[in-house]
Amino acid sequence: MATGMVLDGIRIIDWTQFTAGPAATQLLGSLGAEVIKIEMPERGDPGRGNFQVYGVDCRLPGNRCVTFENHNRNKKGITLNLNSKEGRQILYRLVEKADVFVTNFLPHRRKQFKVEYDDLKKHNPRLIYAINTMFGSKGPDSEMPGWDILGQAKSGVMMNVGESNERPLQATPALGDMISAMALCFSIITALLARERLGISQQVEVSQLGSCIATAMSCPVSFYLQAGKNPELFVRDKARNPLTTCYRCKDGRWVILCTIFNKHWPILVQMTGNNSLLNDRRFSTLEGREKNSGELIAILDKIFATKEAKEWEELGRQWGFPLCIVNSTEDLENDPQVLANDYILEIEDPVLGRMRYPGYPFQMSETPLTYLGRAPELGQHTEEVLIDICGYDWEDIGKFREQGII
Fold this sequence. Notes:
Elements: E1 11-15, H1 20-30, E2 34-39, E3 52-53, E4 56-57, E5 59-60, E6 64-65, H2 66-72, E7 76-79, H3 85-96, E8 100-103, H4 107-112, H5 117-121, E9 128-133, H6 148-155, H7 175-198, E10 203-207, H8 208-214, H9 218-227, E11 246-248, E12 254-257, H10 264-272, H11 286-291, H12 293-304, H13 309-319, E13 323-325, H14 336-340, E14 344-349, E15 353-358, H15 382-388, H16 394-402
Parallel strand pairs: 1-2, 1-8, 2-7, 8-9, 9-10
Antiparallel strand pairs: 3-4, 5-6, 11-12, 12-13, 14-15
Helix pairs in contact: 1-7, 6-8, 7-8
């Protein structure tokens, strides 16, 4: 699909839907893999019709969907009815020519369609088989269907955001989905490396529960498991360390300070032009600032209210003091740091016009990630894939269409 990219020559069969699975294969496509997305005829991935998400109208021109476009760009798309024996035979022929098969369907569905690892490796012993689940393939919840917020809930994320753990709060939408997508992408690349170095193929599995525990919840879970205690939740007005909390500025925006080092205290004092604080013994040490945090927060509230957030951010740069503006989502598109590092990707699409997507989480100097095309129309590449890769002819295609197989 692409040349001169790190996954050039790798073919991935993507039998996933909604968010976590498609987001992982989209990233693999951005690395140059040829990703072939399989959808059921007529219905397709339910994510295609996800036009209302968290109260946001996600419809694009041509009845396309924002989230579907974001998670399915850089792919080819085919339709294939895996309910039929003939449809599965086509899949098996495609598997013979593939490197990776990715799915996020539940165990009983994979068994029903005869597309489990043992079914597919008969047709390709070198195949990497990757599964994305909600809670893991073992245990009482292995067949539990679900979406992002269940992963946030069961992993403890929802009790570790906000200013109180008395009631659960949802973190940013699709947090668990995207964390598990990154983990799935990582596991697939690792399995491909193992195949290259060790000559082995294998099944790899990622769950939202495991991904959230290992990443978003790694610190609090470690604290509890090893020290028997939970870390305190962030409470702005009652921060233990006044130099690790937020302050509202003159323009109503917030900045956040973030330092535990005593060396930064005199820098902050000089930066704010309040040198008299250097002689205040209440605040001269980290312990003193923690003991008298309420008093210092009240003082800093008044200080930071005298300038706009951008002024404070610029002073932070000049003085080498660690602070930044607390951005809202709409602030990101104009943030010079975001733009300088291409964390927002802007594309001129011939059909959809100017499109902007979240950029890539890492950058590579010699084999860069890139945008290879918008999400496919339902079944857009069916004939191309079946003829060029699977070896069928136009007569076969006609029969498959008549029988509702593609």
